[in-house]
Amino acid sequence: xxxLPLYRQLAIHYRQAIDAGxxxxxxxxxxxxxLMDRHAVSLSTALQTCRHLERDGYLEARPRSxxxxxQPRRPACExxxxxxxxxxxxxxxxxxxxxxxxxxxxxxxxxxxxxxxAASGACELYPAEALKQATIxxxxxxxxxxxxxxxxxGSAALRSVLAERALPSRIVLGRDDIIITNGCIxxxxxxxxxxAQAGDVIAVESPTYYGxxxxxxxxxxxxxxxxxxxxxxxxxxxxxxxxQTYRDIKAVVVVPNFxxxxxxxMPDESKARLVAWCEANAIPLIEDxxxxxxxxxxxxxxxxxxxxxxxxxIHCASLHKTLAPGMRLGWISAGRWHERVAQLKxxxxxxxxxxxxxxxADFMGSSAYERYLRRLRLALRDQREQMIEAVATYFPEGxxxxxxxxxxxxxxxxxxxxxxxxxxxxAMREGIAIAPGQMFSNSDRFDSCIRLSCGxxxxxxxxxxxxxxxxxxxxC
Amino acid sequence: xxxLPLYRQLAIHYRQAIDAGxxxxxxxxxxxxxLMDRHAVSLSTALQTCRHLERDGYLEARPRSxxxxxQPRRPACExxxxxxxxxxxxxxxxxxxxxxxxxxxxxxxxxxxxxxxAASGACELYPAEALKQATIxxxxxxxxxxxxxxxxxGSAALRSVLAERALPSRIVLGRDDIIITNGCIxxxxxxxxxxAQAGDVIAVESPTYYGxxxxxxxxxxxxxxxxxxxxxxxxxxxxxxxxQTYRDIKAVVVVPNFxxxxxxxMPDESKARLVAWCEANAIPLIEDxxxxxxxxxxxxxxxxxxxxxxxxxIHCASLHKTLAPGMRLGWISAGRWHERVAQLKxxxxxxxxxxxxxxxADFMGSSAYERYLRRLRLALRDQREQMIEAVATYFPEGxxxxxxxxxxxxxxxxxxxxxxxxxxxxAMREGIAIAPGQMFSNSDRFDSCIRLSCGxxxxxxxxxxxxxxxxxxxxC
Lengths: 476, 476
What we know:
Shape of chain A: globular
Number of helices of chain A: 15
Largest interface: A-B, 59 and 59 residues
Helix content of chain A: 40-55%
Radius of gyration of chain A: 23 Å
Distance between the termini of chain A: 41 Å
CATH class of the largest domain in chain A: Alpha Beta
Largest sheet of chain A: 9 strands, mixed
Oligomer: homodimer
Number of strands of chain A: 17
CATH superfamily of the largest domain in chain A: Type I PLP-dependent aspartate aminotransferase-like (Major domain)
Number of domains of chain A: 3
CATH architecture of the largest domain in chain A: 3-Layer(aba) Sandwich
Strand content of chain A: 5-15%
């Protein structure tokens, strides 16, 4: 935060006050003079602060009266509607691989200038220099780190730090409850292999991350899609209802915090109910908790595992989104399936190499990590808000979007019968990559939706690209 | 090689001459004076050379006559007998996990001083400093290497080097035929998942690497064990015979060069015949070619894939044994299953992190790599020969061992009905870990065998441990 210009720091301060209701809509923003006195800043800085907040839709200037608090312009997009609870569709073998492959192949025909398809942050958001230094330190501390066998379950130092860092999510783990994996994807594979086999039915959110559908397809499992909303994630009622019809559900997989692609956070009571229901029905609950640190505020979100009393919840996560996309470091805490997962990890790929684990343990154990994380959160919050504003400004009337409180993506519902596939094709020709809705379900229910990344810094060029995308959306 | 003392270099030179038959058994070794003149060395160096060769069993000193060439003492161990070809046992679900877990658990009760159980080299054999420097260079060349997404199929630079380095094994690959994996274990998993599914029968060598049996068990596949010999590896005749009974073999998995645990190298005609038979019967052939660079000589060994004309051979390998046990870098060239394997890798664990791939590409592309490899081969050859000599000297009469021409391990058959399990337990109490024969098969056929690592430098302490092991073997 200390590297941001002063006016940005002040703007963030007041934005938080507005979000928290400390400054209510309609109330008067402190005058420029008051800002100068209160924060010991120049007139220019005070003015920039207010203009920045105005640009972001937090303030409006009233002639001769100064600045007043308004609601951010975001509500110009109506929130995505809460789906009616309905019985889930029949479970079936997922057929997503072909669909995703074909989309990716199409995408490769054009050079991408703006990658809004990936759920990842721009490289410059991540602490390259600190990680480089930590890696060099780790190499110098133990020159034989690359030539000795890697510890089977992962570096004890990293697992200790992860256990400690999990406490704010209300997860209490020992380091030996954690196994380091080749990313969260491997963790999810191990979790699914531990509790189910080919042919089994797995309940997932709908829409859900296409990577999960690809995993299920590769393992020969069936996906049962459970209605989920941008407001509160998976509908536990719908799951309970579906289970009356599909009595052979072998696991439930959810992303409880900043769900991909909806951006939803499950309310705590919903997490508690889901954990209790899974436990009561002896159905393992697998959670992918990769995004929970990317919220707008420092207030930590609870993992579903926080309510786990019997080891029925398998917690998976990774550092790709929060620390280093290139490091491929994930982990799994498999509760009562710990031994089984350890065996499967051993049989599937043995240990992960340890050098980068040591580097990450070093960095994550320092206060620099917390400062970095705060910067990342603020940068992402800015980018999200600017992207939301761009959708509100440039996309056709009737476009729906529920502003997420964190994460790297926006889920946008185009009006009417708009085809996201068509938009995808046309946008690709303009060098803009987006993720069309049909990647996130086996059904055609999301064909008018798109997922947009908020990972890129909101530059003038990106603004132009968003304007182009909005115009194209109006024609699809 | 240039870091070895002069007398060791000379000893290696003459050992090669003896092995090649240039100096025949019974012939006179050049006199000390001749050695001094020919190589411009001191008397002390010439003497040390001859004593070293004497100690290794290559020369014998005859009073007043000087040194004469003898056969190395290795034949004191009789070679492991070539098994009679017989119909393979019924395929069955492997049950190795429990057995191996129980062995490992037993092992953990005692502190290990001498780990002769692992098929890996001592840390100091590997080029820690060069890899460290290459890693630091890679970090400095591209500071964002850890914070950018990793390339899905692996670093193009590494894949190019691997393709080039595969040429001496007579494998012709483009870099895009290669996918980088989390070690050879992941490569084998992907290969098996690409061509078979749970319940399928897979033909494997017998004895075979227990890791392969663990993979099959974890994937729910059945292992059909095919007799294999220390002289020539898998018996293709036995495989052909077995296939008449078991018509549903879905794949064959072999380690054609320095097989684990036998140390066998399949003769080229045998490789050719196996490849042709698999092709004719539409059975995919999966080879694990991890050890082929660890031969006594620079002469490269051909991979089975060298005979592949139709993409029916899936080639898997890794750098754990030849370059860096801690790096977890393997790769797969899956022939006609390339696309399927790429999809499975994506679904199973996504890309490998790229930093260490860049470091390895840098090092493997340099001439320092070749010099290192030569040193490694010579060091391992020394260690193998000293271990062989120790078995010959200290183990009970009737012990059988076929000296392997490369690799990291010895397969030792104890005389009579000796129990390797008992030996394992007793050796563990002395701080000596060995791998008992029952780890390498679902049958009890190898209960009197042990696998010994040649990865450790042959110190005085190791010599004492081998003497202890030999005495224990006489009592089991």
